[in-house]
Queue: 3 jobs
Job 1
Amino acid sequence: MQKILVFLSFYILSSIHLQAQDQRFMGGVIVGLNASQIDGDNAAGYNKAGLMVGLRGGAYLTEKASLTVDMLYSQRGSRRVPKNDELFDPYTISTPYVEVPFLFHYKDWRVEYDDGSFFYKVSAEAGVAVSYLLQPKVENIVYETEVDNFNKIDLAWVLGVSYYFNENIGVAARYLRSVTPVYNHNKHMKTFNSLYGYNFNFSVFYVL
């Protein structure tokens, strides 16, 4: 996995470099926030906030279509804050990932300038994300004893939309849903639930 991450880092940095020479390539930076939860932990709501930051590389397929690969540090997990009349203790599951989304983008809503240049204001996005779990942490929940058995690799599908203010700057919203468990009770303790991650993220990006 480390070799794959090194290769993807090289690819993204190469895309940023090549963009200055060839308009078929793109590169940029992304900064945002996650709102996440974990299905199976007996808590509801996207209460776990986290940072998301990283780089983007990609290539334009047509005027409207492109493929991108992001390399992100993404803080995900789950957090329970009991109401006043509840007896349950608060708890937190923190799952920081190196997250690599592979996305297809399709743009629309063309805006033209007087000099003949143009850009597209909106983009629909879909793809998959492969993530590598760094150092999970569990506070005040039964999974404290099982944190070493959390899966290192997470596979998820991703849907999103972006809005561009100009050809370089925009904002994005994405929904990520894991198809592999954070914790698989069939491999470990069947008295616990399996855990699956869900995540909304909202970001600002700058691309060239």
Job 2
Amino acid sequence: MIQTSASSKILTLIKSAAAAAVLPVLFIYIMIAKPDYKIMNGLAHVVLPVANVIGDVITWPIRVIGDMFQDLHELSSLRAENAELRVRLDEALANKNACEVSIAENKKMLAEIGVARNSPYPTVIADVIHNHRALHHNTFMINRGIKDGIMPGMVVVSPSNQFAGVITDSAYGTARVRAVTDSDTNIAVRIAGYEVYGFLSGNGSATPTIGFFSDPNFRAAADLELITSNISGVLPAGIYVGRMKNHTDVAVLQPSSLSRVIVLKFDGNSVYK
């Protein structure tokens, strides 16, 4: 009974499909053999929708495959465009980094030029080529020497005009600088804004100490600034040295932070060299 019912349904579907297929043929026959426009107009309302449905059913796989190929083409185009945008973004970031480096270097050079122009002494700009630290000693080498007029005793400052050290030895094209943190450093300083003098002594650590104030009643405190004093005739006066962290320790320039320095051609007699 079930098989008979299924067979009937299949037969009905076949008849419907055959009738749907015959309708377009009949419509074409009438158009050619007996062009009766009333009949044609009546059949058109039936044949054309059926033909559209049959056409949609027949072309559905083709349209699906076509849509898939179009989607794949668009996806490939998007990937290619994305790859190109990534390349452009990398180039833009590289240019941005190069610009930032150039701007920073330009600011540094302007600062160096400012120090050189405002200095009452002839100056030489040098690069730090080696930093040496051992036990309580801290020195560094620069790429300027006797051929550039660099002699022992000359003062070395940072591009921001902070005291960095003193030249101890000079060769033809290089010179050695005793850093402010070196244990052999002992320089005359003054409390900025006060007529109070003392001596800053290096101890090999990051924070030298200060002692022997000219005013025994003066009490040192944190955040007081120290500048060089010329009372000993060794250093030019007024160079910023550092800031006091407490009543004895001073925060000074660390040699490891230096890549370029400025040498002031100064001697004890204030003679230009």
Job 3
Amino acid sequence: MNAPLQPAVAPPTPARPMILVLGGIATLSGLLVVLVYHLTLPRIEANRRAAVEAAVFAVLPGAARRQSLWLDEAGLHHQPVKGGREFHAVFDGDGRLLGIAAEGVAQGYAGPVRLIWGWRPDCRCIVGMRIVGMTETPGLGDKVASDEAFLANFAALEARPTADGLEHPIATVRHGRKQQPWEIDAISGATISSRAVGEAIARSAETLLPRVAGLLEKLTVEEEG
């Protein structure tokens, strides 16, 4: 009587070659990611600089020229310095100082909200704000970049520098509760995103304006270059 046939058993796959193949694929994938990052980084940086420059001119009406400066404990610098805080002196067509513009960032609902704000020394107030980067919810949180009523908060938002901060800290309040010129009226349904804008401006202005206010006479268009 013939013995029953046994099912064929596939020979075991050697573990070492499999590990080597998978390791090679992972290494190659990592190298490709790094390569793509380095190839696209210059374009990303160029786009970021262009967005910042456009925002600087937008937040100070009448702007014709700007000069990037860096401020550290030693004073003003015309070139980037380690640990220095960048801001922009902005001038009109006749070379008169209009004000300064600077960047602020704070955590929003879906990620960081980055913006540029503009400040004029004649009114001691912020006269413009422009979002330069965010990932807020479309149709809701992202209204901080386009809602006309919200943007009106920054037509003359009081920001009076003192020796160590602002006379009245900038604060975001719930929609419809704005009573003071240093308050920001939030967008209904987008309070977190609205507060991120307020926090970004407040943190930036509170650290920068007290020092810059004492250096305004040094911000001349002749220094540009």
